[in-house]
Amino acid sequence: MGRKWNNIKEKKASKDKNTSRIYAKFGLEIYVAAKKGEPDPESNRALKVVLERAKTYNVPKAIIDRAIDKAKGSGDENYVELRYEGFGPNGSMVIVDTLTNNVNRTAASVRSAFNKNGGSMGVSGSVAYMFDAAAVFGVEGKSADEVMEVMLESDVDVRDVVEEDDIVIVYAEPDQFHAVQEAFKNIGVTEFTVAELSMIAQNYVELPEDAAAQFEKMIDALEDLEDVQQVYHNVELPE
Length: 239
Prior knowledge:
This is Probable transcriptional regulatory protein ET464_05475. It contains eight helices and eight strands; from the N terminus they run ααααββαββαββαβαβ. It is an alpha+beta fold. It has three domains: 71 residues, Integrase, N-terminal zinc-binding domain (Arc Repressor Mutant, subunit A), CATH 1.10.10; 82 residues, YebC, transcriptional regulation domain (Alpha-Beta Plaits), CATH 3.30.70; 70 residues, YebC, transcriptional regulation domain (Alpha-Beta Plaits, 2-Layer Sandwich). The longest helix is centred in the N-terminal third of the chain and has 18 residues.
């Protein structure tokens, strides 16, 4: 389980270094979620999830409000969610989730990022079967036993609860995101170090130093793309 948490930490730390980029990505994701349903998180569960995730990245309220106000307007921008799958050095696996208003542009840029960095695009389903969707929460100041107890009492479908680096990590079924959140409220927890809907690899691999450097370069290239929202992989990267 530690490998899963380490990769989530690595991904979050990487994004924390690029605040303007991550704020822009969240602004788009919030707009799309609000546009699909009511622009009110209490009646739009997808929007509520995005806003909870945005809190863990300290996305400014002004950006959130601007995205929701834009969704309330008469804008006719149409975005689609697309998933690309591919391979990196030494058979490593990558999933790339995108939001785009230009499918051809996105496909070409994702393919280029793979090809220029020792990777290759795969067909749909070639990688995703080796990952499991999960709701992932991280909290400080609580013990794993205390968290597990409240999850069981709240009848939450939890896969695992582990404690690492003074942070308790909860892995649950994706549809349990809000149930986990509500269970935490029962023990006074409303702030999270992590609150994500993630894709967790079933098995992780380590790469030789040169291949690991190339792989990280490929991941950076993918995450730098305007249309890319999330990148998941099965590589155990050094901390």
